[in-house]
Write a structure and sequence with these properties.
The structure holds two protein chains of two kinds. By secondary structure, chain A is an all-beta fold. In chain A, 0% of the residues lie in helices and 49% in strands. In chain A, the strands form two sheets. In chain A, strands 2, 4, 5, 6, 9, 10 and 11 form a seven-stranded mixed sheet that branches. Chain A has a four-stranded antiparallel sheet with strand order 1-3-8-7, with no helix packed on it. In chain A, strand 4 and strand 5 form a beta hairpin. The N and C termini of chain A lie far apart (35 Å). Chain B is an all-beta fold. The chains are: A mainly beta, B mainly beta.
């Protein structure tokens, strides 16, 4: 039972570098989400997708882009990394978008920007 | 603004009962969920309330009062493995799955 898989698990970047975080789910879920979690804080929504080919902005979208070309994958891109983007990034998915649908999370990607 | 408030830390002893409170202020509200996170790992879903009242799932129960914009998570018969962070999350939309999370409550269970 893979569930939600995030790649890579750890990464160190230099300021200005770019990278893509990959999220893959095998539960045939329609909805997918990217969050960031900073020390002592809850999760903040970066972008989300309500289906293949769709994306929308969350609470903190600046500096990030996303793509959902395939239903099972949701990619998060940092075009020009900044130290303020040092964080733990979590991907999640849910079967539907109604408020009673639980979100299933990956194990996170720990990203440090130097 | 939209925000959820919960205590930052709670300590209790094994076998005891602990209540973690959450008050919310959101522009739209469709329900309150609770998630558990061990040591910075993947958050896992615990419970959901859409209507006023108590929902029970084993040792965990969750309560919601929409009129008071308040909810709580009740953990009974505490075990050492319950030491974790607990997050309340408000559904701000009825069809996008968007959640607004509180800052989390770190529960430490002592022997």
């Amino acid at each position: 039972n893979a569930g939600v898989t995030q790649t890579p698990k750890f990464r160190v970047l230099k300021t200005g570098q770019s990278m893509t975080l990959l999220c893959a789910q095998d539960m045939n879920h329609e909805y997918m989400y990217w969050y960031r979690q900073d020390p002592g804080m809850g999760l903040r929504l970066i972008h989300y997708s309500v289906g293949e080919g769709t994306t929308a902005k969350g609470e903190v979208p600046d500096g990030y882009n996303v793509s959902r070309l395939k239903k099972q994958n949701f990619l998060l891109g940092l075009e020009s990394a900044a130290p303020s983007q040092t964080s733990v990034y979590f991907c999640a998915s849910s079967y539907g978008g109604t408020s009673n649908q639980p979100q299933h999370f990956g194990d996170g990607t720990r990203l440090s920007i130097l | 603004g939209q925000s959820l408030e919960q205590p930052s830390e709670v300590t209790a002893v094994e076998g005891a009962i602990v209540q973690i409170n959450c008050t919310y202020q959101t522009s739209g509200f469709y329900g309150l969920s609770w998630y558990q996170q061990h040591d910075g790992g993947a958050p896992t879903f615990l419970s959901y309330n859409a209507l006023d009242g108590l929902e029970e799932t084993g040792r965990f129960s969750s309560f919601l009062s929409r009129s008071d914009s308040y909810g709580y998570l009740l953990l009974q018969e505490l075990q050492m493995k319950d030491s974790a962070s607990y997050f309340c999350a408000a559904a701000s939309s009825g069809n996008t799955g968007k959640l607004i999370f509180g800052q989390g409550t770190t529960l430490q269970v002592k022997p």
